[in-house]
Amino acid sequence: MLKEIQHGHVKTETHNGVTTIEFYHPQSNSLPGKLLEELAHAIHRAGNEDDTKVILLRSAGEKAFCAGASFDELIAISNKEEGLQFFSGFAHVINAMRKCPQFIIARIHGKCVGGGVGLAAAADYAIAVEGAEIKLSELAIGIGPFVVGPAVERKIGASAFGHLAIDATMWRSADWAKRKGLYAELHSSVTEMDESIARLSHALAHSNPQAMSELKKVLWKGTENWDHLLIERATITGKLVLSEFTRNAIRKFKAK
């Protein structure tokens, strides 16, 4: 299944129990609202398919894994309702990943910024390649990593999350992300990364679906309030994005 969305796409394929969900956008795999909506729907649909035993989340191309929010859409937000709607898109994707009964493996082939770090954190098992640096850049443009924050903090702890959130202009290495627990594995080449993904995907596709579903519930224990929490966080960001400070900061970033 391939759905074209504003010059990007979300593509879903299932082979031998492994459902691959791929997203793409020409602006460094950034995430406009329509793409976020379709990504959440794709994850939800895959989670309800009997043929799906494990999900592989990946993005297209060879450069960035995900550049986070679409700056074009951020600058176009004109009121709190539009702000809430846009940032709720990230909430819906993270909650879809959280509630999906299958394990989600994330293939991190390049840099992650903002919401991209959130996707890596919301995956149950992220496999990355050297060079897949991370940055939570939100504070640098006058907002903050409020929606993705719970997912990132859950994965790497409050201290490391604080380091990322506060120093919003500093890239952290893939090795740093591995040591903090964001990445489960780190490989020296794309070939090695893909071989490891294939090995784990095959093993999980032949594991007991009920056992995996129950284990996922255990691993995500304590997040039952996220349907409400992440929308609360989206409300905060939706207000901040309207400030003149933020609008000027986004204009400067777009002009680079």
What does this 3D model show about the protein?
By secondary structure, the protein is an alpha/beta fold. It has one domain: 2-enoyl-CoA Hydratase, Chain A, domain 1 (Alpha-Beta Complex), CATH 3.90.226. Strand 1 and strand 2 form a beta hairpin. Helix 3 runs parallel beside helix 4, helix 4 packs across helix 5 and helix 5 crosses helix 6. The model has no long low-confidence stretch (mean pLDDT 95).
Cα distance spanning the termini:
36 Å
CATH architecture term:
Alpha-Beta Complex
- In total, the number of strands is 9
Tally of DSSP helical segments:
11
Tell me roughly what share of residues is in helical segments.
Answer: 40-55%
Gross morphology is globular
Write the layout of secondary structure elements.
Elements: E1 2-5, E2 8-15, E3 18-24, H1 33-47, E4 54-59, H2 71-76, H3 80-99, E5 104-108, E6 112-113, H4 115-122, E7 125-129, E8 134-135, H5 149-156, H6 158-166, H7 174-180, E9 185-187, H8 190-205, H9 209-219, H10 226-240, H11 244-255
Parallel strand pairs: 3-4, 4-5, 5-7, 6-8, 7-9
Antiparallel strand pairs: 1-2, 2-3
Helix pairs in contact: 1-3, 3-4, 3-10, 4-5, 5-6
